[in-house]
Amino acid sequence: MNNVQTITKGFIKENPVFVLLLGMCPTLGVSSSAINGLGMGLATTFVLLMSNMVISLVKGFIPDKVRIPAYIVIIASFVTVVDLVMAAFAQEVHEQLGIFIPLIVVNCIVLGRAEAFASKNNVVSSALDGLGMGLGFSFALTMLGIIRELLGNLSFFGIKLVEADGILLFILPPGAFIALGFLIAFVNRIKKTA
Amino acid sequence: MEYFIIVFGAIFVNNIVLSQFLGICPFLGVSNKVETSLGMSAAVVFVLTLATMVTYMVQHFVLVPLGITYLQTISYILIIAALVQMVEIILKKVSPALYQALGVYLPLITTNCAILGVAILVIKNNFNMIESVVFSISTAVGFGLALVIFAGLREQMELMDLPKGMKGVPTSLLIAGLLSMAFMGFAGLV
Predict the structure, then answer these.
(1) What is the DSSP-derived secondary structure letter of residue B59?
(2) Interface test with B, best of A25, A27, A107, A183 (most B CBs within 10 A)
(3) What is the ipTM, given to two decimal places?
(4) How far A24 CA lies from chain B's nearest CA (Å)?
(5) Which of A96, A77, A39, A49 is nearest to B70 (CA)?
(6) How does pLDDT run across B158-187, given as a tens digit for each residue?
């Protein structure tokens, strides 16, 4: 597989959210607006990129039996970095995302890519894989955020488009489930015709 | 009264799955049958309570006195992973019957974000020891309740004739949305 494919497969073909169904908790939890979705996506992308790189660098030194705990420690370190950096420089988004930032540790995408890709490939392709998957995740979260914000609040990235009330349900928790359900059905449909 | 508010709030009003979005993976993954979801819920009640107690003690007797609270995420996830492993080994030795019932669900629990989520929430809400235990038990019960109701609904949906693209996960998510709407009815009670 060449480098371009390694990056682009995360968007539709192997999209972590729509196709692999990984990392559903943050997807549903923070997608009430496009900005939050994008913020969460980029935070996860950073963790994915860094942990994939480091894991692929140290894969030769870690005994096979303790690799999972070792991976988790590496991932948790980068999550702590993101948590502290965001608290310092992007306080508003950090407050909105709240508990979901430390929970990037248990996001199955990160550990999943470490185990499935970074532990078998070299640094460059692992980095590209992390970047691609992360961007695919950000894409999914932002899409869901845009749809929910548009329907729920009639706004786009916080800019009010029409001065009226939206369908409040889509901002509330049930709207997350329903919007994601239809979005996945839509992606299934595209994949079948493509 | 205070405890009643915590219990009621955690089970119904702020249900961990349907309004906090924690623990969605097992919620969608093991909820095909009512029976398996009961097993999973029992395992979660057990581990969640234990994990919250241990992380609470670590927070207040180790991290805060030493001034290293920024290590919260790393230490919690290691504690939870170790704890799950330990519970598995002890159960195997002490109660093979219980191990038979819960065994398969235990490894899945490490990656259940509800466990780490509740451990962090307890610290954020400044609960004391007893409140934390009450909160974690009722959160786990809320998780179990949502899981079992959802499994029951899904068993029925298996029999329905659905459009191809909607089969499987999309329908499950729509059902979850309706269930979440039903739970919204509890909002404002606490």
Answers:
(1) I
(2) A25
(3) 0.83
(4) 6
(5) A77
(6) 788 888 778 788 888 998 999 999 988 888
